[in-house]
Design brief:
By secondary structure, the protein is α/β, with parallel strands linked by helices. It contains 13 helices and 18 strands. The strands form 2 sheets. Strands 1, 11, 12, 13, 14, 15, 16, 17 and 18 form a 9-stranded mixed beta sheet that branches. The longest helix is centred in the first third of the chain and has 23 residues. Bound molecules: pyridoxal-5'-phosphate. The site of pyridoxal-5'-phosphate (PLP) has 15 residues, from α11.
Length: about 475
């Protein structure tokens, strides 16, 4: 029912308590979109309980994950729209979704319907893109550890390849001289423009493991020569952004990429490099529902740093992951027990390290909001009390939040963990053989009715056994 969507959402209390950094600039439009997304989310929580996707201690499911498909579509359109409105008319552009952010075939298909391809970084991700029906021409292969077999397959299929390093280029040399390929090929460079706030995700430091380091002695000259020697190298790639990297620093990496392309083309005396792959890396706001920074803000930062990027001289490829999916995912978990130990209040839930691995192991870098709901899925009210939100895994540090000010949680209540649509519940960690939960997409009709569609079934105990060598019981006897 539409009137369930009151102005106060479950975020009303939890948003204040989020330990995240500032969300950055958000205008009235992003704020209103965020409120609309929060209303859809609360309707979906109520409906998930009513429709038995999660709930009741006796027989109900303890855990489910939800994806707001209208939100994903809106993000896809914001991405394509932001670049389309800035680029010279007719400029070729491919937005390739970084599959690692949400490796789910129905998600890849939904994005493909919005005109978005796939960036893949493993044979598994390539298989997912192909299963979703994404064309080779809309697929890009990255990865710092491509095997000869992977390279051979990509070139045979006509998938774009970003070569990571000199040794890999020699492998590609051999394959190219063995037979022609339709694959556009480029080299990934590390512009070495600097780190963001999260070391483990910073790809453009002086010592990052990815790409050819542009500022290392001799590297730039080697790269220019490498292109002149290989007329089939027509692209250049950099991925300088990620969570914790400011837009201006990402844009600086793209400026370095553009300058290198100009240098190569000047040396070649023709437009040998015709396409720039600028990677992904737009950060996500984990502190509120505002989807900031926006693609439009990123495009504005790029226009400021490298205006020529948009003049049509180069085709563009982008590889966004997190920014397309994160805001649209919700973990919904039952509070199994609520207890007090040594003066510490602990809500033991079914959402922990298996779904939010980064948060559990690096809580300062990956703070998540916790949204409290009652057993019916209505936002929980009450005076805030500091509570730890624990997961189900058997180690003490399996915590999604500590001393979080929330209405007092009781057994049977639910917690929602928003912003988990990328790199969280789709990047399952198999600790304690905890099963991968079901993922349902949802849409909300104009009348407020919520419709769910299964996007990934829950992992059964039988499949856990099978994946753990169940058919090989006697193999080591
Ligand atoms: C080469 C490359 N492209 C794209 C991405 C996606 O980044 P994000 O999800 O931050 O947009 C990554 C992330 O690791 C990457 O390594």
């Amino acid at each position: 029912m539409a009137d369930m969507a009151s102005d106060r959402t479950a975020d009303g209390t939890a948003g204040r308590a989020a330990a995240g950094k500032s969300a950055g600039p958000s205008g009235p439009a992003t704020d209103e979109e965020g409120r609309a997304a929060a209303r859809r989310r609360d309707l979906a929580v109520r409906a998930a309980v009513a429709q038995g996707l999660v709930g009741g201690a006796e027989s109900g499911e303890p855990l489910v994950c939800l994806l707001d498909t209208a939100g994903i579509r809106a993000s896809a359109r914001a991405l394509t729209g932001a670049f389309a409105s800035a680029l010279a008319p007719g400029t070729p552009v491919l937005h390739a979704f970084a599959v690692k952010a949400a490796p789910l075939v129905p998600v890849l298909r939904l994005l493909a319907d919005e005109g978005i391809g796939c960036e893949v970084a493993s044979p598994g991700e390539l298989a997912l893109a192909r299963a979703a029906g994404v064309a080779p021409a809309d697929t890009v292969l990255d990865s710092p550890a491509k095997t000869p077999a992977e390279l051979r397959e990509a070139l045979a299929l006509g998938i774009a390849v970003n070569v990571d390093n000199r040794q890999e280029l020699e492998r590609v040399d051999a394959l190219v001289s063995a037979g022609p390929s339709r694959s556009p090929v480029g080299v990934r460079v590390n512009p070495q423009t600097g780190a963001g706030t999260i070391d483990a995700l910073s790809t453009a430091t002086a010592t990052s493991k990815f790409g050819v380091p542009l500022r290392d002695p001799g590297a730039r000259a080697w790269l220019v020569e490498a292109y002149l020697d290989r007329p089939w190298l027509t692209r250049l790639h950099a991925h300088s952004g990620s969570q914790g990297v400011p837009l201006a620093l990402i844009a600086q990496g793209v400026r370095e990429l553009h300058a290198l392309a100009e240098e190569i083309n000047a040396a070649a005396g023709r437009r040998q490099v015709d396409t720039l792959d600028i990677g992904g890396g737009l950060p996500v706001n984990f502190a509120s529902d505002a989807a900031t920074p926006t693609y439009a803000q990123y495009v504005a930062a790029l226009r400021e740093a490298v205006p020529a990027l948009f003049d049509g001289g180069y085709g563009l490829v982008t590889e966004f992951g997190r920014s397309l999916l994160a805001k649209h995912g919700l973990i919904l978990a039952r509070v199994e027990y609520a207890k007090a130990t040594g003066g510490r209040r602990i809500a033991v839930t079914h959402a922990g390290v298996q779904l939010a691995t980064r948060t559990v192991y690096a809580p300062a870098s990956w703070p998540l909001r916790i949204l409290p709901y009652d057993p019916n899925g209505s936002p929980l009210t009450g005076p805030p009390l500091p509570q730890d939100i624990a997961g189900p895994a058997c180690f003490a540090g399996d915590l999604l939040a500590t001393a979080r000010e929330l209405p007092e949680l009781s057994a049977g209540d639910l917690i929602g963990v928003p912003d988990t649509g990328a790199y969280f519940f789709t990047a399952h960690y198999g600790y304690n053989s905890l099963p991968r939960p079901a993922i349902h997409g949802f849409t909300v009709t104009a009348a407020g009715e919520v419709r769910f569609a299964l996007a990934r079934p829950a992992q059964s105990p039988a499949s856990i056994v099978a994946e753990a060598g169940g058919d090989l019981r006697d193999a080591l006897r």
